[in-house]
Structures are given as structure tokens and as C-alpha cells.
Specification:
248 residues
């Protein structure tokens, strides 16, 4: 980490701001940050660096939208998501840094594909089953994806939109979901010893200012970008970042 160049630190700062922007409502940008950080710091340090930044962004989101959460839906999703986090933790204990890097890339690419399929209408929201089984499947997949790659966003977007939530309820429910699951991940990360360390926390202290800057930038941008150009840009950039991890 001490060998990172000025341009490297600037890119890391951009990754932090992207998380803030995603929490401000520009969904999809969050997927881009993790693979970029992995390319800078390596898989395990990057995943550890990202978690406190995500929690900081979640706090901002909850402060804005805490009154709009659908707690009935959260009560279905959160317990099984915690099971997914435990499964993801076991997998992470059994693989090395290279395997984790490839896993992050594969999960992110899968989430990009899921986003593309939904945005193109191939997975229409009204065709997603709405029973308890779907909630359990979504929660479990989100838990595994968020533990290993901080990449549960597309799963939750597809599920919550398919459930017919209105705009503020969608954002508020997602904000509480991610604040809870990211907080639950902390002891799992600490138990692995090489994920959250004094060195990663020192990086977080340098990067955390990007979260509020990203939040305000996201609020400004969300009203100025056309939805189509934004979606295409996020999909392409995230896929390229994940492919960069796959080729090493």
C-alpha cells in the first residue's frame, strides 16, 4: 500500500466516491469500485478496505430514507442473507488471494449480466415469482455475493423492483438492507485477520472523504444524466474492470 503512486491514490479516491454516488441513487456504480480496488491493493486488502466505506455510505443513505423501509420484506430477506454471508465466509477461508480475485471478477460479471438482462427486459420484473422461496433465494445469493465481492446490489434491485416497491420505499428498504448486512459482515471480516487490518483502516481514513463527496455528486448527477447513457456506461466500465481481474 505504501508503494501506491499518486495516480493510484487518486483512482482509489474515485472508487470511494463511486460508492457514495451509488448510495445517492445512481445504482450500478458500486459494482465498479471493488474490481478497481482489487487491481490496486490485491483481493483481500481491497475487500477489507471497501467494507468500512460501504458502511459509511449506508449511514448516509439510511439518514435520508430511513422512514421508507418495508420491514415486512426485510424480515424475509435479512435472516437468509446472514446465512449467505456465513457461507461466503467459509468459501473465503478456503481460497487464496488469486482465487478470491477471480471469484470477485466472476461474481461482478454475473451481476453485470443480471443487470443487463433486467434492463433489456429479458428478465421482466412482473415475471419474477413473489413467494417466500424467491425471497429466500434472493437473500441467500445476495449474502454470498456481498460477503465475497460486495456485489449484492443487482440481486436486490431485481428482487425489490419485482416486488413492486415505489421509489422511496425501494431506496429505503435497500438502504436498511445493506446497512444491516454490511454491519453483520464486520465480525466475519475481522475473524479472517487479513481482511480488515490496521493498514486497511489507515487507507479507509484517507478515502472516506470520498463518500460524502460522492453522495452530493450523485444527487447532482442523477438529475442530469439520461438513464440510457448512464446504464450503458456503468455496464461497460464494470465489465471491463471485472475482465481486467480475470486476466490478472
Amino acid at each position: 500500500m505504501a508503494d501506491l503512486t499518486l495516480w493510484g491514490w487518486l483512482l482509489a479516491g474515485v472508487c470511494s466516491a463511486l460508492q457514495g454516488m451509488s448510495k445517492a441513487g445512481i445504482a450500478g456504480l458500486g459494482l465498479l469500485g471493488t474490481p478497481l480496488l482489487v487491481s490496486l491493493f490485491g483481493a483481500r486488502p481491497a475487500v477489507g478496505i471497501m467494507l468500512p466505506l460501504l458502511i459509511a455510505g449506508d449511514v448516509f443513505a439510511v439518514c435520508y430514507y430511513h422512514r421508507h423501509a418495508n420491514w415486512r420484506m426485510l424480515s424475509r430477506l435479512l435472516p437468509i442473507a446472514c446465512v449467505g454471508i456465513a457461507i461466503g465466509s467459509v468459501i473465503m477461508r478456503r481460497i487464496d488471494d488469486t482465487a478470491l480475485r477471480l471469484s470477485v471478477a466472476a461474481i461482478v460479471l454475473a451481476m453485470v449480466l443480471l443487470t443487463v438482462l433486467r434492463n433489456r427486459g429479458i428478465i421482466p420484473d412482473d415475471k419474477v415469482p413473489k413467494g417466500i422461496g424467491t425471497a429466500m433465494a434472493a437473500g441467500l445469493l445476495a449474502g454470498i455475493a456481498t460477503m465475497m465481492a460486495h456485489a449484492a446490489g443487482p440481486v436486490m434491485q431485481v428482487y425489490l423492483l419485482a416486488m413492486g416497491l415505489k421509489k422511496n420505499e425501494f431506496i429505503g428498504t435497500g438502504a436498511w438492507f445493506f446497512l444491516v448486512v454490511n454491519t453483520v459482515k464486520v465480525p466475519f471480516f475481522l475473524a479472517q485477520k487479513d481482511l480488515i487490518t490496521p493498514a486497511t483502516l489507515a487507507v479507509d481514513l484517507r478515502l472516506v472523504i470520498g463518500i460524502p463527496l460522492g453522495v452530493f455528486a450523485g444527487i447532482w448527477l442523477v438529475n442530469r444524466l439520461s438513464n440510457r447513457s448512464y446504464v450503458i456506461w456503468v455496464e461497460v466500465m464494470t465489465a471491463l474492470a471485472a475482465l481486467r481481474l480475470l486476466i490478472g
